[in-house]
Write a structure and sequence with these properties.
30% of the residues lie in helices and 27% in strands. It contains 6 helices and 11 strands. It has a 7-stranded mixed sheet with strand order 6-7-8-3-9-10-11, with helices on both faces. A 4-stranded antiparallel sheet has the order 2-1-4-5, covered by helices on one side. Helix 2 crosses helix 3, helix 2 runs parallel beside helix 4 and helix 4 packs parallel to helix 5. The N and C termini lie far apart (49 Å).
Length: 264
């Protein structure tokens, strides 16, 4: 059964198409990696799923319900530029995320707060930040702040987690450890995950599916004339075999001339 359903989605900025004819059905608990060239609407698609932006046409439903026109606690996001609470300690960031995920007011009783603190300390130990638990985020390096932002998003246990190149600031060893942490947490909580990545190996390693955004229609005289759509949907659990190839809809405009190939 589809948990997140995207139907015939279009997005236009200032008269220029960014996305067109995007449809996707995702089961609860699936991990969908999103890849494609820069500028083909991957981050815009995440903002639409977050409900930070509204589509020009089409619909998005989560658990059968249409989005309400603004982000809510059921969806969490980690942007390319890490975002944490600067006025809270590292540990406090994780406790606050869990509290905000638990209720509208972000309040925890004494017993629940002690349990949240214990879980925060365990998570910090797991991601190598236990030694800075009482530090302010401003005292951390960029990679450490990125680890904190990922852990903070996971602590809130959203039903849908959106990740926009979340591991870009991490060194290879730390990235591998964070891959494992994300995989454990998302399975434990049953999260549905959408992750934008420019690393194909990472996309296939973490994802159950890998979808490719591209522009199948291309006008060499006006490259921005057409928007991107999902051109391939790979089953990463089955040796990457494509099980869905994007089909042109009957009412689609005739294809423009093919993209020019470089000489030589």
């Amino acid at each position: 059964m589809s948990h997140v359903a995207v139907e015939n989605l279009f997005l236009t900025y200032a008269g220029r198409p960014v996305l067109e004819r995007v449809s996707l059905s995702v089961a609860e608990g699936e991990f969908v990696s999103i890849v494609g060239a820069s500028g083909c609407g991957k981050s815009s698609f995440l903002r639409l799923l977050l409900d930070q932006e509204r589509p020009t046409r089409g619909s998005i439903t989560v658990a059968g319900q249409p989005l309400k026109g603004e982000p809510d606690r059921s969806r969490g996001i980690v942007f390319q530029r890490y975002s944490v609470f600067p006025h809270m300690t590292v540990r406090g960031n994780l406790i606050a995320a869990e509290a905000l995920g638990a209720n509208l007011f972000g309040l925890l009783g004494p017993r629940a707060r002690r349990a949240a603190r214990a879980r925060a300390d365990a998570a910090l130990e797991r991601i190598g930040l236990a030694h800075v638990a009482d530090a302010w985020p401003s005292a951390l390096s960029g990679g450490m702040q990125q680890r904190l932002a990922i852990a903070q998003a996971l602590a809130a246990r959203p039903r849908v987690l959106l990740l926009d190149e979340p591991f870009g600031a991490l060194d290879p060893g730390t990235r591998t450890a964070m891959h494992d942490f994300l995989d454990e947490m998302r399975h434990a909580a049953g999260m549905t995950v959408f992750m934008v990545s420019h690393d194909l190996a990472e996309a296939f390693k973490l994802g159950d599916r890998v979808v490719v955004f591209d522009k199948p229609r291309w006008d060499p005289h006006d490259p921005a004339a057409y928007g991107a759509t999902i051109t391939y949907d790979f089953d990463a659990r089955n040796r990457g075999i494509p099980y869905q190839l994007q089909q042109e809809t009957p009412d689609a405009a005739p294809p423009a001339p093919p993209r020019p190939q470089p000489a030589g």
